[in-house]
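As a representative case, the lines below give one protein's residues and fold tokens.
***
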Amino acid sequence: MKQDSDAVNIPECFISNHEGFLGSIKNAIKDFVVTEIDITGRRVNTAAATPPPDCASPDRKEEASAECQSVSEELEQFVLTLKEKPTKQELSLGSFADKHHRANVHRAVRHRFPFLMTVTIQPEIRVREDPDYRELSHLVTEDEAEDFFRFIDAKVRGSSYTFGPDDDKEHRTAVHHFLSRRFGKLVETKSFTDQGTTAISVRLREQGRPKKRTAEERKEEDVYTAFTLRKENLETLEAISYMAAALGVLPSDFTYAGIKDKRAITYQSMVVKKVSTQRLKEKTAEFEKRGMRLSQVRSVGEPLRLGRLQGNHFDLVVRDLRPQGAADGHSSGADSHARLAALVKEAVENVKARGFVNYYGPQRFGSVKSVQSDRVGLALLKEDMVSAVRLFFTPDDSNDPQNYAKRHFLQTDNAKESLALMPLSKARERLMLRALNRYGTGPDGCTQAWLSLPHSTRVFYPHAYCSRVWNEAVAHRLTTLGHSARRGDLVWRREDTGENSSAQIHVVTDQEEHEGVYTLGHVLLPMLGNTVKYPENAMATWFQERLARDGLDECRFRVSGLKLNLPGCYRPLLASPSNLGYQLQRAACGEGGGEVTANSSRNSDRQQNGTAAEGKRDSLTLTLNFDLDSSCYATICLREIMKCDP
């Protein structure tokens, strides 16, 4: 067993004692393929090659796609013209015979461009500048005007909208008069003072008893469309942000079972609300240009829930295999290949039989070397909102537009300028910057910035911190208490109570340790939280000291200001792959091309004798296929097999 820490601080505790070997992964995106396994045990891409019976012909699809693209380009140009010089001109978006299709077009245009109004002269839809928006934008900022019109369009019962601080009474009176004159039947307004500043709050008027929705309204609002998303070299949330903007819905209208790797080809199920199957299919060509392919588009009755999956199937390629250590450097090609074949067989058989340490992988902590997500999470748990925001915007060494915008924000504290610099695809960063521009960069403003993110995004960062501590706890547990179940360890035990039975947390006793009732595979360690039980052995003291070191000895694992509550859970110390298979083959000349990623040259400094080209021609390639339960990491399984960071 070896313990150390790598570049992203994942401890190196191994269960098996085989020698392992060297190699590299993700030389090309196609070398790492992840396929979600749904709750029925089926891979979600199983039927991906079978088109639904109502699909349009390829010629019609290309024709429709060209039409949509042409309309979109005309609309963008029309908007640019309006921004430069207001005009009373109109733009025709074309004719739409289906009324549900027309409703989707109206909603999409208004959501993306709140300053436009859409008019139907059946069956044609036209757009022009909304004069009310132009008038309001002269009284408040353009961002506030856009947000207000989105609020009005949404018509969420009981909701309210608050403009930014305004201590000029005459100006507030002008805003009140405008809102009363143009929207008096819909809203009521009032000024309120909080912490020395005054602002205008707008609330939708109560309309008596809630209006019963018509069958048509229910049909439009309760539409759920499921699909399988194949994405390439994209984060899940980045893909969702782009699709939401293109469809004119919110990112929160998309639901999914789990987040998938960025540097990979991944297949996963998703459900989008308020978008019909027809409308989604119309966008498939546009999505393909961004590395996303949709299949199995179908209507369903409900959204997906996070965690509603059985696991993931992995197809991995490890290239340029070499034995560990310099002793094998002078072996002949045949001897070296035979040696590698023996090493691979031993490693795979060991992991099949014993599993691997169930660490959280580096993806859990983010890919930016300068700051990890767990540090953001620690700041949030300490309720230090300003530090958490500044850590969130810490750039890496590159000077791409995203990192340039982050660097500009940290240097200038100017959220408005940084928002203009931030790419449109970076939805989380843009949400934060818009809130910071509106509410300021002090503690209250930073709290509002975090609240602008969806709950699932906010809670990711404290979870990353808890995951880091869990990884360290496992390494300490294996180092100090060994590879067997010990007194005070936690395990699941099924309690039979008549007809029902349920699993309960059980503390291993002295007698159970001596009799070997439980193995290391039964042992659990708690994820930090306010409802979990901690081990009743030396690990209890370790957890207390570890939290105290980070200033969390009194932490309740609640951040009420951000509506976050971390109850905690129990995670098995070991995990095991199922259906594990492998194939060794000699690398073909020129193999391994494609998009090169940052990981592709991690072990290049270990190249033995001869030129790189000669070594590649004579190298072996390992293909691995296996299934893992949800929340288990393929890179960690691979590390147990190879005994190094691939």
